[in-house]
Structure to design on (188 residues):
């Protein structure tokens, strides 16, 4: 089973299976899993690993994203929809798995995910241009997923800080104290 929730939707998988007229044995052969595993995916009691998701989608003639319900598509979703691990995507982007994990979790690109020169095209390519094919998507979709990743990270960071302030009054006082000098400068 996948350790990362990414929105696999058994109802969508069942609908795609019905539309394609695919049998459980056909899906199992194509996805290289057991018929029991396919039955568990169809029932919604098991979530396929990203690599298996891609094969299941192929078996029912659908895109991996079509088998998932995702409110806000992030970099994690784009990677999962290609069926690759963080290490694989990191290698393709020319960065370590740890650096890619940071990008996928925070949306912070750093210098390894900046523009690159393309000798074939004779020009510099923006991150969205050269990285989008690695995610099997468009530059606009990649940029939107990156922005959502960044926004989700900031929101979660604020939630964690709020919970910590509620649990530890001394921490809350330190945070409040750090904010005063900045406010004083802005007000003067």
């Amino acid at each position: 089973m996948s350790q990362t929730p990414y929105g696999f939707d058994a109802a969508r998988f069942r609908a795609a299976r019905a539309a394609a007229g695919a049998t459980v044995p056909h899906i199992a052969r194509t996805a290289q899993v057991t018929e029991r595993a396919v039955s568990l995916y169809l029932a919604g009691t098991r979530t396929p690993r990203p690599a298996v998701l891609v094969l299941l989608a192929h078996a029912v003639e659908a895109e991996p994203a079509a088998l998932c319900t995702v409110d806000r598509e992030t970099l994690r979703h784009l990677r999962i929809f290609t069926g690759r691990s963080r290490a694989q995507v990191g290698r393709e982007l020319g960065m370590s798995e740890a650096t890619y994990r940071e990008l996928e979790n925070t949306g912070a690109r750093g210098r390894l995910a900046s523009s690159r020169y393309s000798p074939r095209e004779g020009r510099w390519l923006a991150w969205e241009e050269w990285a989008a094919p690695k995610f099997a998507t468009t530059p606009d979709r990649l940029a939107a997923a990156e922005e959502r990743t960044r926004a989700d990270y900031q929101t979660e960071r604020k939630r964690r800080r709020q919970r910590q302030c509620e649990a530890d009054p001394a921490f809350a006082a330190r945070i409040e104290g750090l904010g005063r000098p900045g406010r004083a400068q802005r007000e003067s």
